[in-house]
Amino acid sequence: MIQCTRCPRLVAYRRRVAREKRRAYAAEAYWGRPVPAFGDARARLVIVGLAPGAHGSNRTGRMFTGDASGDWLYAALHRFGFASRPLATSRHDGLTLRDCWITAAARCAPPDNKPTPVELANCRPYLTKELELLTRRRVVLALGRVGHDAFLTASGWRAQLPPGRRPRFAHGAVTRLPDGTYLLASYHPSRQNTNTGKLTRIMWYDVFRRVRRLVDER
Asked: In this prediction, what percent of the chain has a pLDDT beyond 70?
């Protein structure tokens, strides 16, 4: 996957960002490639995000690592027992996940955080294969509408469920799918949402309280 060059626009963008860099990270070697998923292969919780951040995961080489979205995510994962530490700074920082797998709809950083439908389709086989291998998954947390739709399509539920029974994206919405998996939707912890108050810490931790409860449900 990290050798993938299916999307010329994304290849050019991720390489340009890695070459030009942000001033604060000028001394660092950027990853500049597709970013692999990360976590516990026996996870009951699967988190599906949007795509790597240009100066976050595209720099560090690990999902949700090195930017503000990751700060929100790993703080919550640590608080609710899924991560060994509350802050992710690099893929060499020793952080581990317990019972959690983090993936995304797209694996390359897109301009303006907006992968095209064709780019999402090109990346979909990687998510489909991961979902096939994550046989213990019980809860899927979709961060944002793109992550939500990516999971439904990659898992096959979009095709299998009639239109009236397909889960719709809404913050905090929970759907139990026919195989018993819970799909929980949340606003993405991007600066656009957190800086404007669309997603607050209270809302965010409420989502993870529900995640914890559903993961542990017997």
From this structure: 100
Provide the domain limits for residue 12.
Answer: 8-216
| CA gap 55, 107 in Å, rounded | 14
What are the E-state strand segments in the chain?
38-39, 45-49, 100-104, 139-143, 174-176, 182-186
Domain count for the chain, please give it.
1
CATH number of the domain within which 108 lies: 3.40.470.10
Condensed to tens digits (0 to 9), the pLDDT of residues 95-124 reads 999 999 999 999 999 999 999 999 999 999
CB-neighbour burial class of residue 215 (10 A; exposed 0-12, middle 13-18, buried 19+)? buried
Phi and psi based region of residue 32 (left: phi greater than 0; alpha: psi -120 to 50; beta: remaining) = left
Residue 3 lies in a domain: no
